[in-house]
Amino acid sequence: MLNIHTRMSVPNDVAHRIGPISPAASGALYQQIVNGFKREIGEGRLPGGTPLPSFRLLAEKLLVSIITVRRAYEELEREGIIFRRQGLGTFVATDGRKRSREAKRRSAEALIRSAVQEATESGLNPRQARSFVNRITSETLSEEEECKTPSKSAA
Prior knowledge:
- The structure is a single chain.
- The termini are far apart.
- A 3-stranded antiparallel β-sheet has the order 1-3-2.
- By secondary structure, it is mainly alpha-helical.
- The longest helix has 26 residues.
């Protein structure tokens, strides 16, 4: 059963949520849009059935071409994260959150494999490479925990 929000109103802040999109940032513009949607859908801020902006509206908000938005939507649709209904629009798939998280995990695994390969090709032995990855992981997760923890002065 299709679970499309009955109001059919597109959330006003979708463009703000998935951004910032910038030619100065790493990655192609369409990929930045894809990553932004995957993040928002994966973290549950855009639940299944949520209507998405039209190509034209999102392109205007993000200051990118319609072709860029279309390419991003096509990739998200190919992965089953969103779907289009003729005459109704584009929506987050019912299981979009699950699919988005799976896609992010596959991407993370590929990046970690690439990082380990780079580390070993730089001359690190397997033990050193493992230590290197563990150190980076620990530092990154500690920084994220610090950002999420309210400061004592704010309490």
